[in-house]
Design a protein that fits this description.
Blueprint: E1 2-13, H1 19-24, E2 26-36, H2 39-44, H3 53-65, H4 72-84, E3 91-97, E4 111-117
Antiparallel strand pairs: 1-2, 2-3, 3-4
């Protein structure tokens, strides 16, 4: 299976269990690795035979900016399902970063990574 990766998609969302997170929002960063067969697109040099990563990026931002959820696990699942809605995408790895998570000790990042497939 071939891979198309998008790294560092940024969007502001209002996800979290604390009222401050819901009210003020924060930046979330998303990395994706889409699994698909790119051979048909490459053979014909045809965008319609692969995944349009620009559209995927816009859809992911829409999910992050959309309906708030408590957990970034839920956000990652919603993103994965959106990616799998594209006909050629057979598998997706989603990493959701929450660099401004409300943690009381010094840290660099919090991430949740999931892999989903059509299987």
């Amino acid at each position: 299976m071939d891979r198309v990766a998008l790294r560092g998609l940024k969007a502001r969302g209002h996800h979290g269990v604390f009222p401050k997170e819901r009210e003020e929002g924060q930046t979330f960063i998303v990395d994706l690795v889409l699994g698909l067969d790119t051979r048909p697109a490459a053979a014909d040099d045809d965008l319609t035979k692969t995944v349009h990563y620009g559209i995927v990026a816009e859809e992911v931002v829409d999910v992050v900016q959309g309906e708030p959820v408590d957990l970034i696990e839920t956000l990652a699942e919603r993103i994965a399902q959106r990616c799998l809605s594209h006909a050629g995408v057979q598998e997706v790895e989603v990493v959701v970063h929450k660099p401004d998570a409300p943690i009381t000790v010094p840290f660099d990042d919090v991430t949740v990574t999931i892999t989903r497939s059509r299987r």
